[in-house]
Amino acid sequence: MKNINLFLVFILSLVVFSGCKKEDEEPTPKEQLENKTWVVTSSDTEILTPLGTLPDSLTNDFDPTQGIEGQTIIFNTDGTFVVGEGDNQQQGNWTLSENGSTLTFTGLVEGELTDFIDAETLASLQTFEVTSLTDTQLAIQNSTNVTIPAEIAEQITGFAFPITLTVNLTINFSKQ
Questions:
Q1: Could you report the per-residue pLDDT of 86-132, keeping only the tens digit for each?
Q2: In this structure, are residues 159 and 168 in contact, taking their beta carbons and an 8 Å threshold?
Q3: Whole-number Å distance between alpha carbons of 174 and 165
Q4: CB–CB of 71/39 below 8 Å?
Q5: What whole-number distance in Å separates Cα of residue 136 and Cα of residue 153?
Q6: I need a labelling partner for 89 at 20 to 30 A (CA). Which of 17, 81, 152, 161 fits?
Q7: Which of 68, 75, 67 is nearest to 40 (CA)?
Q8: CA of 72: how far to CAs of 6, 113, 131, in Å?
């Protein structure tokens, strides 16, 4: 009889514990990003030269975030992303660190910039610190040193020697 009572207590315990849902668990940072459409609400690029901040008139020529406000990005669960819509789509891969502090893209940076920067700098430009991630908001930032070859540096400074610029990027998203 004692064994039957212990068995019943064991079964009841299993039923009670298995019936408890894990509704109180917070979604992981990755789950907060995945399969949602995020819209760029604002972006800011600051380019610092050895002589100070690059004027806005020149920054616009080298601004990788120029005109991205309103663009959408979808972080797929398979580690791919899609930016933009229709004929203006760009695809690549993304990873988020387990603790949600670093968001890394591959295939995000394209264009003339990739013609003169090395692979390490390219990877750095596509790695962002996540400064805020909630169910409805995402904010990322990046600061990367980029060495500009002499022929391009001459257009910026008037002097034909390579320079290193610091590119500071801040991008804010809202979940659509």
A1: 787 889 999 999 999 999 998 876 655 666 777 788 888 889 999 99
A2: no
A3: 30
A4: yes
A5: 40
A6: 152
A7: 68
A8: 58, 22, 19
